Amino acid sequence: MEAEASGLKKQQLHTKLNGPTNSMVTPLLTDLYQFTMAYAYWKARKHLERAVFDLFFRRNPFGGEYTVFAGLEECVQFIANFKFTEEDILYLRSSLPNCEDGFFDYLRGINCSDVEVYAISEGSVVFPKIPLLRVEGPIAVVQLLETPFVNLINYASLVATNAARHRFVAGKSKVLLEFGLRRAQGPDGGISASKYCYIGGFDATSNVAAGQLFGIPLRGTHSHAFVSSFMSPNEIIDKSLCRNDGSSTCEDFVSLVQTWLRKIQWTHSLHGVFGETNQSELAAFISYALSFPQNFLALVDTYDVMRSGVPNFCAVALALADLGYKAIGIRLDSGDIAYLSIEARKFFCAIEKEFEVPGFGNMTITASNDLNEETLDALNKQGHEVDSFGIGTYLVTCYAQAALGCVFKLVEINNLPRIKLSEDVSKVSIPCKKRCYRLYGREGYPLVDIMTGENEPRPKAAERVLCRHPFNESKRAYVVPQRVEELLKCYWPGDSGKAREELSPLKEIRNHCMRQLDQMQPDHMRRLNPTPYKVSVSAKLYDFIHLLWLNEAPVGELQ
Ligand SMILES: Nc1ncnc2c1ncn2[C@@H]1O[C@H](COP(=O)(O)OP(=O)(O)OP(=O)(O)O)[C@@H](O)[C@H]1O
Ligand SMILES: O=P(O)(O)OC[C@H]1O[C@H](OP(=O)(O)OP(=O)(O)O)[C@H](O)[C@@H]1O
Ligand SMILES: O=C(O)c1cccnc1
Ligand SMILES: [Mg+2]
């Protein structure tokens, strides 16, 4: 069943900054320690010191070598509306009873007009260590933003990546439907999953609220309960169905279907496939067809796919064809999907041939039931006839990996670069307010991402750039880019006279994501042992990181 996405029409060229989708996203949606630190900064008169933080992740999810960046629009919607209410202040006062009144007056006056957010465009393919967001502003305010920003980006990017990975395995020609609402982690999980799976390459969702909120196309079939709620075709009261062209009315559609069912039963080429079909299922299919003759799709696995569901569906679809309607197809929700889809296709083709109904063999076969990347891959290897996959639990819960692990790290304060050291080199932060570039090669693929200091010259097309691994001295390469793209663009503030990037409509973000995924070199995308994409720093930044590292790391003493 298709419903026109009405929300899309409402989308304007310039996205209005009305606030985040979820009204629970307020300045209190942060960790307590952000407030205790804000108070300590305030007490130390440090709260207005200008700090730069990078938001990034350290490892790509799902054992892959790429990530889809999502959640940016919600971050911008959040800071554009960042303001404590009197109720918030009262609550904070009661939670932090030992803080001086002046601190709450300070909080009362905070907004994000002096915060700057530079970000990679939403829907981009991104890699570890590269800042997705660079947030600059008074340290106390920027710290308050840490938790909501990480929260808004973490799951969004994880589930968009999961969706992109499912799309990659399914292939471009398949229709992918997100069916996860009932299994998602709460209402926000469900709404977010629908939004970000769409960005990652799903075609539609069953989630009606997400359709309304974001203009995502809605799709759906029907459930087993609908099939098993019927007892027999005798239950059907209004049996009439108008021809598709409106020229006449068939007064007894039930009899027409039963006639077709008998014809199918007597057909030599289908002989032996089935005997008597389940009559309650037949009644359910007829009822559904009478309600949706233009969009008839039947769930065929309630009793027995090949002995009942498929022949019953075909009888109804043939009766519809008599009246000028084209049925959509079937959904399989259990059993061996490869085998059953192939058998169902053979049956449809046999009907097309036997009864000379052109196009009957192309009936859409939708499959669902605990599908994931692995089952899609297994189906591809076995061969199957599924056109459309409905995917819920594994997709929206990100069953294969629970979190992306985004972090928010201080890289500069009062123009002084800061570093965070760790025993684990992968956890050492990359200091400085930075610029980031993607360098493209001759064949159009991105070759490497490079971070430089803010004031270093921009790498230029056709000029050799030394790209260094940030921590491994021996790993370096000269790159002569064909094209250079600056990754971080200004998304906030809105009114500082600086050109600000517009937030794109969801469909455009999705298209951007599809283009980004398409332009990647296949070795980074394959599921088994993908090649890591190179993330590097300039020679100057490399030297600076290591200088700062030596400065900050205490020298050990052996005795
Ligand atoms: N040909 C196939 N190759 C690999 N996996 C498949 C194939 N067909 C189905 N699957 C997967 O196998 C699992 C079948 O699960 P299970 O046996 O629990 O379901 P079922 O008994 O067929 O259906 P029900 O949901 O009614 O219990 C599902 O995860 C499904 O996606
Ligand atoms: O399997 P998922 O990927 O989560 O996709 C959504 C599932 O939700 C529906 O049924 P539900 O699972 O509620 O009932 P069922 O298991 O009895 O089919 C549908 O039939 C799918 O099987
Ligand atoms: O429309 C469907 O078929 C559907 C929707 C949600 C979950 N399972 C199936
Ligand atoms: Mg199920």
From TrEMBL:
Residue span(s) of domain Nicotinate phosphoribosyltransferase C-terminal: 433-544
Domain of life the protein comes from: Eukaryota
Cofactor: Mg(2+); Mn(2+)
Listed GO MF terms: glycosyltransferase activity; metal ion binding; nicotinate phosphoribosyltransferase activity
Reaction(s) the record says it catalyses: 5-phospho-alpha-D-ribose 1-diphosphate + nicotinate + ATP + H2O = nicotinate beta-D-ribonucleotide + ADP + phosphate + diphosphate
Modification note: Transiently phosphorylated on a His residue during the reaction cycle. Phosphorylation strongly increases the affinity for substrates and increases the rate of nicotinate D-ribonucleotide production. Dephosphorylation regenerates the low-affinity form of the enzyme, leading to product release.
NCBIfam families linked to this entry: NAPRTase_put (TIGR01513)
Family recorded in the similarity comment: Belongs to the NAPRTase family.
The protein's role, per its UniProt record: Catalyzes the first step in the biosynthesis of NAD from nicotinic acid, the ATP-dependent synthesis of beta-nicotinate D-ribonucleotide from nicotinate and 5-phospho-D-ribose 1-phosphate. Helps prevent cellular oxidative stress via its role in NAD biosynthesis.
Protein name per its UniProtKB record: Nicotinate phosphoribosyltransferase
EC number annotated for this UniProt entry: 6.3.4.21
Biological processes per GO annotation: NAD+ biosynthetic process via the salvage pathway
Record's keyword annotation contains ATP-binding: no
Pathway: Cofactor biosynthesis; NAD(+) biosynthesis; nicotinate D-ribonucleotide from nicotinate: step 1/1
Keywords: Glycosyltransferase, Ligase, Magnesium, Manganese, Metal-binding, Phosphoprotein, Pyridine nucleotide biosynthesis, Transferase
Pfam families reported for this sequence: NAPRTase_C, NAPRTase_N
Domain annotation Nicotinate phosphoribosyltransferase N-terminal: ranges: 28-154
Source taxonomy: Eukaryota, Viridiplantae, Streptophyta, Embryophyta, Tracheophyta
Gene Ontology cellular-component terms listed: cytosol
Organism: Nelumbo nucifera (Sacred lotus)
